[in-house]
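lol ok so funny story. i was supposed to be doing the assay writeup but got distracted and ended up predicting the structure for this chain instead. priorities right. anyway since i did it might as well share w the group, maybe its usefull for someone
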Amino acid sequence: MPEEDKIDNQQEPKEDEEVIVIEEEESESKESGEEILSDEHEEELGLDKEAIEEELESVKKRPKWIIYAVVAVAVLTVAAAAFLLLHKKPPPKKPAKHVIHKVVKHKHKKKKALSQAYNPIVDVHFINAVRLQEKGEYKKALEQLKKATFDLYISYYGIGYIYLKIGDIKKAKEYLFDKTKRYLLLAIHNNPNYVNGYVNLFRIYMAQRKYKEAKRMIELLTKRNLDSKDVQLMSVYYNYVVDNKTNNMFEMISQYPHSPLLLSLAGDYYLKQGNVKTAINYMKEALKYYPMGSEFYNLSLVEAQNGLYKPAMNNIPKMYYMNMDKIPCKNYLAFFLLFRANKFKVANNFLSLNKENSVACFEHFKIVPQVYSTLTLENYSLRMNFNYILAFEILNMYLKPINLLPNSAAPQIKLGFLYQQLGLPKEAANEFEQAAHFSEAVLLSEYANKFYIQGNYKSALMYYKSALSKTPTNPLLTYNVAIMSLKTHDINTANLLLNRLISTYPQFPLPYMAMSIVKEIDGKHMDAMNYLNTFYQRARSLDEDSQKKLQYLTVFSNYIIDRENFNRGKIKKLREHERKVFLLFEAALNQDIDYLFIQKDFERTMHLYWNPKNLLTLCDYFYKNYQNDFLKRLMATMYLISHKPRKAYEAMYNIKVYSAEDYYELGIAYLLDGYPDVADNFFTKSIMKGVNFYNSYVAKAIIQAEKGSLTGIKYYLNIILKKQQKFAWLNTNVYLTYKVQLK
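and the output, tada:
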């Protein structure tokens, strides 16, 4: 039974005194019944349940600020209960006759008067009722309260509270509103100076939304010049709730800084203004002076609504002050917060506090799936070495084809003449044919080089391929076709030709540089670094003239291999164009997107047609141009972190072999895009891939929560608890979670 005003100046009944007793009900409610949905202001103040449900239902179509208002209503109405703590005045003497209750005459023998603070009958009944209520023996608690013969307002309120807990709304409303109201009206009629009567009637009228009657109580207190502090508090509360006025509210807070009512009103005011931080501060301040479980519940709701899940979860034990552990709303809020934090065992304990059919409050919570990552988009891209991919693409576009020298066919022509003089016409013809093919290849290479200079890489590649067909074993033409394939984003052809060159001419440095680009774009960073290091070693082993020719590339490779000890004096030896390329290369490696964006014009001269607006646009360039599985996965994850689920699952189309993580990310993407059934199917595939993952079972439970299926949640939660020792978290950069809101 909630705390009420202390009972003072109570006297033992005199002989022949008429005493008011509570009538016995015709039928008792069951001792334990189905728990009911009751918001905290309904629990404390007895608001009409149907009205609350209608209000919550109407919130579905309202904007976000109205949702805040719904939460705020709970804050306001519970704050009204603070009036009870502010009034410690003695109740009036009990009226001699009560027109509604039976009047029974008791004859008592004259006894010695006892102390006014002592009343053995009242103390025993109230104490017994409290003890019985704590044990859940509500029927017996009701019997004890009905035997109370003094301060019937408190008795009625306690009885109504018990009826509310066991689900008898009709009886709860009768005692919380009708009987208490009639008693208080009679009390102030017999004792017009009974301030608590006016205040508590005001509270009841406000709870019933009978604002005219509530205002009448203020007017009566004002007219009788009774307790100006109460009048001020009531007026502030009335003006705020009825007319949304804040007149004198903050001025009164300065006068009464410890008033939980005023602090709660201020919290509600700032909540409506969208200033959540200040609202929460006022709510916490109110809790210092009125630490009720209902207030902590409202605070947790506000925090959860605004993504402050950790402090909301910390308030869970505090929500159960005043023995309110059987209120379904609190149990479900606690469950959602704990389940969200992956505390499955304790979450299940709160869920089990409610019976199977006690789902009314559960259905008022709205679960909104969302994704989170421990990494930011920038950190994730660095973790996946996307900065190296950017830098190597600049190197790719900077690599130049090698020109063939026309006079390279001269030795074959001379040898052909020699064979002819020796009478070996067949051998001579073969040499002349090779010289002719080489000359033709040179001519085709010249055409290819012209297209390369124009930036027409596709045409250049076509002519280089034709030239290579004339002399298939020529390493320079093979290299040219390989790098032109790279420039046109044909990784497979480049990889094949470069491997052929490395195996045939292992001392030739350039194929190693090109191969490092292939491996980096393919997502194999360590392989790329190994090839780059080999290029650097091969280049250093060449003669001095050859080293000078490759100097521009060795500067780049040296910077990648050892950036900390890099000698920036080497940059000065580069030509102006090469220095610009190096600065662009350095910016890419350091992921300086701003510099890349500024240098858009220069990038186009290198035929880099990416859009360096942000990391997503840059990644999109590689995804569209290379289409390998690594870049598909990279792009999908970046889209998920950026809350673009549709683009995420579109990016993962046609991966050669899907992994458990691929199916998991596909499930997340489809769920966030509004396809829970498709998502559920992918989570199943993730589980069937081999190992049982927490991630996928948690995701399935979230789907059931989004659908409003309490049975489905319990099903998957049981699996998690049953197989907990065998489960492991799926190694992923993206996790599925949810927001907790009111419908």
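DSSP finds 40 helices and four strands in the chain. The first helix runs from residue 40 to 45.
back to the writeup now i swear
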